[in-house]
């Protein structure tokens, strides 16, 4: 049966003839020339000429072994075998062929080594002997020093960190270079359109959150306060024709236990919507190394009519479910530390970066992790600046001595911070992360307090140059109680400084994205999965791979961790705190966080 495709006829007989025609040269006796003539190589594949394989001048002057002395056997293919159309190189060797190759492949007349090869061998031998001699000397010196000096537990901590500082030429400069790789994200600006779209979504979500919290505050203080006001029982006017029962025990239950009051009656504690409208709304966060507490979303209100304040916590469950609960009940409060200790909060105390202090014992409904500390310190991260400016114009506040003293304190710390930041410009990540671990090792009581000698020793261990005058002036400001002990987190923030609240908000966003279970710590495995280095400039240019950039980040982050398999919020914040020192522009720092974490 013949087949015809587009006018070309083909039959099974013609196909058999073509294949039989290919077998004829093999049956007539095979040689290399005849095979090459009958089956020329394609123009793409060059023909291999074994005779032209000679050593170049760049290699050692070994004599060229002629191909004829190798005696490699290639048997012609068997015409009767099934592998008729297979080239000789595709026929596998048998065990007999392999044995013959092992016997004949090594020629007997090997040439003597040249002078150039002998010289290289002598140089290599000398270098190996010198290297081994130096290695033995270093080991002997280490053994003698260990026998001669046995450090105390406190000196062990100092020596460990000092050795890390002395090894700048080895591992630590490598860590610095790896940390600086993260700053390269700023070289490739974040996509403007994508950034604008995300910013708009964040603004809408923030406004929705503020509106829901404000509505809940109004409901709590306009409705529940009137219903539960006990003063209603005293001011309620009794009707003239009302029947008064002589014994209250005989009164029916529905009259004796009244739960609702007459809402038209006004008392001293009754609030109106007009009174509550004169307020300043602000966002704040808890200053804590606990990830669960530091990432709580808190919204506060300061009311002008009675100088009171209240703080609510905004919680979001999933995408659509939210809840607003009181965190600090509405009342008048005073400063619990600093130069204003004992003074009541006023409108001038509320600005971005200000601290609000409360006694945790006064608030029984606080989480247990917060009650462990005597003071609850809140930092204002954002404020309704329009409402604050309007209310400031109405209430004139005079500058007192305390305000001037606080301004002088800030100038003292600013001068110290500028000097230390110059020293930490390119090694901030390594120093800050190591300093956090060093302070935790010294804190045997686990209360966060250290004495004056500990802080001086820390400055020496990490080679941070600070004059005695600057240290004493800063210590007088920080040691306000005079007990000789200061919180090491507060000490580090005072002399080194910290990120502004705009930068720190993105650090919290990145950690909250990783800590989806809200446990306060993130496994290294999850960080490895979420970190994306596709848009790193060195990956785009081809100088590095994604895996190399990811490993460099994980190596530097692990140095900040007390546990090898997880990262806490405090350690995550310390890493980016050190990275922030070398980044001047806020938007560049935000790009460094946005690009790999996708926030």
TrEMBL record:
Presence of keyword Metal-binding: yes
UniProt cross-references to SUPFAM superfamilies, sorted A to Z? EF-hand (SSF47473)
| GO molecular function terms noted in the UniProt entry | calcium ion binding
Q: Which UniProt keywords apply?
A: Calcium, Metal-binding, Repeat
* Protein name (Swiss-Prot/TrEMBL): Calcyphosine 2
- Return any one Pfam family short name: EF-hand_7
Q: Which residues belong to any copy of the EF-hand domain?
A: 430-465, 466-501
Name the InterPro entries on file. Answer: Ca-bind, EF-hand-dom_pair, EF_hand_dom
What domain of life is recorded for the organism?
Eukaryota
Q: What segment(s) does the record annotate as region Disordered?
A: 1-26
Q: Which CDD domains match?
A: EFh (cd00051)
